[in-house]
Amino acid sequence: MKDTKKWFFGFLVTMVVAVAFVTTPMIAVAQDAADAKASKSAKKKKGKKAQEEAAPAPMTEEEIQAAAARENYDQAQAAYDKGDYVNAEVYFQKAYDIKPHPAVLKSIAECKLQQGQTPEAIALMEQLMADPTYTSKSKVKTRLDEAKKEVGHLVIDSYPQGASITLNGRRLDDLTPLSLYLTPGKQVIVLAMPGYADQLQEINLPKGTGQTVSVDFSTLPTADAGRKPELIDPFAEDEPAVQPEDGAAATEEPVDTTKEEPLESNGPPNAFWVAAAIAGVGAISGTVFGTMALRDEKDYEESGDSATRESGERSAVIADVSFGVAIGAAIAGTIILIVNKNKKDAIKADATAARWRIAPLAGTDSAGISTALSF
Q1: What is the C-alpha to C-alpha distance for residues 108 and 115, in angstroms, rounded to an integer?
Q2: Within a domain: 48
């Protein structure tokens, strides 16, 4: 018994050692796998967090516009440095349209100066000088004074003011008074004021100086001044008076100019043709259904079929109604013809009726009346 217990205890110890020997590497492997998974997960979270921290925040609408304006301005600056003033002006204008900034007007004006568009450049620089938000005006003023020396200053005015201006064949949107800078040389100005003739003036605008063109419309004749007034003839619509042989003056009532109603066409009126069409359709329908009724009656006599008898009776009723409609339409058409003929006769009789006209006559030593009969 003692040996059995010793043997069992030895066996149990051996089994525990064997299990420990087998499971220890497995536990180590499982622990390594768990540690590796935890490490990978931690790295992933850390990388995601770093990525989120590194990603820039979404741009606002104002920031997007500023970036677009900056891009166009950089392209404009690059073109200007290359001497491409046309494209430089285009990109400067795009930048200004996206995000207006007074300083960009100065750049646009410089591009126009380089292209020989001095009057347009002066207008932009004067706009910039009038902007209270722009502080760097000293350089602009210096450039503006230099540009004004290269052009002529023209002032266009009128009395009363508000005259429309056509300059060198181009109608301007502005009215008088107007101040503008132009390329020196010949200028053709046309001022227009309602009620007056257009006033044309030609000048030779000198360089670097100013000149004024003014028109006083109040001293000019109106557009209708030279036109003769139209006389009204009180007898223009009257028939000439009949002069008697003895020289007595004659007066007569105005001719009756009332237009007579035109006669209708010689053919029958439209209502007659409508009645005729209805009569024709009724007659055809009555004939067709009458024939069908006679045929059904003959078939009934031979076969004695009640359905054939009913069909024949129905066809006979339709035939009778159709003939009745045809007769009524024919009567209506006849009445229309008679009434239309009487109307035409009455119009002709009225048109050919005799008309009496009486006119008084008066002379220096005689008086009387004149009669006339017209047909």
Answers
A1: 11
A2: no
Determine the 3-state secondary structure of 308 from DSSP. Answer: helix
Ramachandran area for residue 195 (φ above 0: left; ψ -120 to 50: alpha; else beta): left
Full residue range of the structural domain in which residue 177 is found: 151-223
Is residue 358 domain-shared with residue 370, that is, in the same domain?
yes
DSSP string of 14-64, one letter each residue: HHHHHHHHHHHHHHHHHHHHHHHHHHHHHHHHHHHHHHHHHSPPPPPHHHH
What total number of domains does the chain contain? 4
Q: What is the mean pLDDT of each run of 10 residues along the chain (375 residues)?
A: 57 58 57 66 66 69 88 93 93 92 89 91 89 85 89 92 94 92 92 93 90 92 68 64 50 49 60 80 82 82 78 82 81 80 66 54 54 53
Q: How far apart are CA 36 and CA 48, in angstroms?
A: 18
How far apart CA 372 and CA 375 sit, in angstroms, is 10
Strands 249-250 and 355-362: antiparallel
Nearest to 240 by CA among 249, 252, 248, 232: 252
Tell how strand 152-159 and strand 210-216 pair up.
parallel
Distance, CA of 95 to CA of 92 (rounded, Å): 5
**Does the residue 233 lie in any domain?**
no
Domain membership of residue 362 (yes or no) is yes
Cα within 13 Å of Cα(98), Cβ side: 19
